[in-house]
């Protein structure tokens, strides 16, 4: 993965360049079938402010929240958390902002995940480091 990899104070910032246009990359965050190519297996998305965001990764680990801002193909903001009882990041308790910045024939994706409790930062950082290269591969293959 390329770009910034900050993880401190309940915040994770990541940046990755993808060889696909912003419209293409954005769709991999708002179309459940496309999102399943890089994150999760059972996905429900209603990409509008207040709409549902829910990813079942493996039948046990489920992330959920709501869309806050949907501005195709420039920005997406959603709340985020885990449905497991007692998880330090319950559904909707943190916030993920994704900006899609045109860069020649590609896109720079800037992810900012905030509001994480200290004990959850490292695990989420590892997760984004795992999934964002998958997003790049899936979006590039769609070109």
Alpha plus pi helix count: 3
Identify the overall geometry: globular
Give the N-to-C terminal Cα separation.
20 Å
| Integer-rounded radius of gyration | 14 Å
- Measured as a percent range, the helix fraction is 25-40%
Structural class: alpha+beta
Q: What's the average pLDDT?
A: 94
The biggest beta sheet is recorded as: 8 strands, antiparallel
Overall CATH class: Alpha Beta
CATH architecture: 2-Layer Sandwich
The CATH H-level homologous superfamily: START domain
Q: What's the arrangement of strands in the largest beta sheet?
A: 1-2-8-7-6-5-4-3
Describe this structure as you would to a colleague.
This protein is of the alpha+beta class and 143 residues long. It has a single domain (5-141), classed as START domain (Alpha-D-Glucose-1,6-Bisphosphate, Chain A, domain 4, 2-Layer Sandwich). The protein is 26% helix and 39% strand. The protein has three helices and eight strands; from the N terminus they run E-E-H-H-E-E-E-E-E-E-H. It is globular, with a radius of gyration of 14 Å. The relative contact order is 0.25.
List the helices and strands and how they pair.
Blueprint lengths: L4 E4 L2 E8 L3 H9 L1 H4 L6 E4 L6 E5 L5 E10 L3 E6 L13 E10 L2 E9 L3 H24 L2
Summarize this entry quickly.
It is built from three helices and eight strands; from the N terminus they run E-E-H-H-E-E-E-E-E-E-H. By secondary structure, it is α+β, with helices and mostly antiparallel strands.
């Amino acid at each position: 993965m390329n770009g910034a990899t900050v993880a401190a104070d309940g915040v994770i910032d990541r940046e990755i360049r993808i060889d696909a246009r912003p419209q293409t990359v954005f769709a991999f965050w708002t179309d459940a079938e496309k999102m399943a190519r890089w994150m999760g297996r059972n996905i429900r998305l209603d990409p509008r402010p207040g709409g549902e965001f829910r990813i079942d990764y493996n039948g046990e680990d489920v992330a959920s929240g709501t869309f806050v801002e949907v501005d195709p193909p420039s920005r997406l903001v959603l709340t985020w958390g885990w449905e497991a009882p007692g998880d330090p990041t319950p559904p909707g308790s943190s916030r993920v902002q994704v900006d899609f910045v045109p860069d020649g024939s590609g896109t720079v994706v800037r992810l900012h995940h905030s509001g994480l409790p200290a004990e959850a930062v490292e695990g989420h950082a590892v997760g984004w480091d795992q999934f964002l290269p998958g997003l790049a591969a899936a979006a590039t293959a769609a070109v």
